[in-house]
Amino acid sequence: MENEGLIEVNGLRLFYREWSCTGDSPRDHLLMLHxxxxxxxxxxxxxxxxxxxxxxxxxxxxxxxxxxWSPDADYSARSMADDVAKVLNGFGFESYSLLGHSMGGxxxxxxxxxxxxxxxxxxxxxxxxxxxxxxxxxRPERFSSLAEAVEMFLQHxxxxxxxAEAWAKRxxxxxxxxxxxxxxxxxxxxxxxxxxxxxxxxxxxFLNIIVPTLLVRGATSDLLKANEAEEMVAAGKxxxxxxxxxxxxxxxxxxxxAFLQAIIPFLMEK
Length: 270
Description:
By secondary structure, the protein is of the alpha/beta class.
């Protein structure tokens, strides 16, 4: 069964989607955090398979999708992590795991650093702790039709048809009736202080994580290099690495079956 709604945290309304476990005995709750300029719809292509074993919760992070935009343009990983903490408190989960892709992975690491009660396992999808430069907007920014948007998505993510269609459903209309990405543009404005952690602070936060952590890297990713992933595994307290062949930065979209085969056994470990 699927459910969706809004929850108020830190003065913002965050949109969420739930998928109830379809199996006989759910193993745990799994909270999923999308990447920059994405929405919780990015998890749709793998949600049905994950829901065979877990109760799922995905949220639109602040400034994305149907969630509120931050009035003071605060889109730091720490502020988003505090949103996540309050969402979890609102749902009352006593035991759960956390999966974050790209920006969502950074938020997940910032959250896990605090060793929150109830967090069992952490999955970081194709991102390092240290910030990258994100100047400008995704290109192209506007589309005359949803079909054109899907075509563009597939040019950059070949084969990810289900994810492309789910993503296109969450585009928003412009004043001239085109379609565009559904996120606050101040997140990519180089003239606005987004309050990101510095490289050293972000790395030290990662080193403080004590829960078992799985790092999933796309073999052809341009955002997480092989040596960076290996450094994370070597330095982390309990971190392991799985590299998925024929996958770029959007591992769960490029190779959904291989991604599921990588994360489900990890999540089901005691």
